[in-house]
Amino acid sequence: MGSFSIPVELIRIVVGVVAIAAFVALNAIILVYLERKVAGHIQRRPGPFEVGPHGILQTVADALKLVGKQLIKPAGADAFLFWLAPVLGFLPIFLFFLPMPFGPVLTTLEVPLGLLLILAFAGLNVLAICIAGWGSNNKWSLLGAARGVAQSVAYEIPLLLALLAVVFMKGSMNLSKIIDSQGAWPWQWNIVLQPLAFLIYFICAIAETNRAPFDLPEAESELTAGFHTEYSGMGFGLFFLAEYANMVVVCAVATTVFLGGWKGPFFSGSWWFLAKVYLLLMLMFWPRWTYPRVRFDQLLNFNWKWLMPLALANLLVTAFIMKVG
Amino acid sequence: MTETAPFFSDADLAGDFYTRRFQPGPSENTLILNMGPQHPSTHGVLRIVLEVDGEYIVRAEPVLGYLHRMHERMAEEKTYLQYLPNMGRVDYLHALAWNWAFVGAVERLAGIEVPERAEYIRVITTELNRVASHLVWWGAYLLDLGAFTPILYAFEDREWILDLLQTPTGARLTYSYFRPGGVAADIDKEFLKGAKDFAVHMRDRLKMYKDLVTDNIIFRKRLEGIGPISLDMCRRYGATGPVVRGSGLAYDVRRAEPYSVYDRFEFEIPTTGSGDAMGRYRVRMEELEQSLRIIEQAVDSIPEGEIRVKGAPKVKWKAPAGEAYFAVEGGRGKIGVHLVSDGSNRPYRCKLRAPGFSNMSLFGEIARGILLADAVAILGSLDLVIPEMDR
Amino acid sequence: MDLGELDARKGFFKETLAGLWSLVVGLKVTGKYFFRPQITVHYPRRTVDNIPSFRGPIELISREEDPAKPKCGACSMCVSACPSGCFTVTKKRPPAPTPEEIAEQKEKEARGEKVKKKAAPKEPERFLYDYSLCSLCGTCVEACPSGALRFSASPYRAAFDRKELVFDLLADLAERAREDRNPPGTGKTTE
Question: What residues of chain B lie within 8 A of the CB of A220, using their CB?
Answer without folding.
Answer: 40
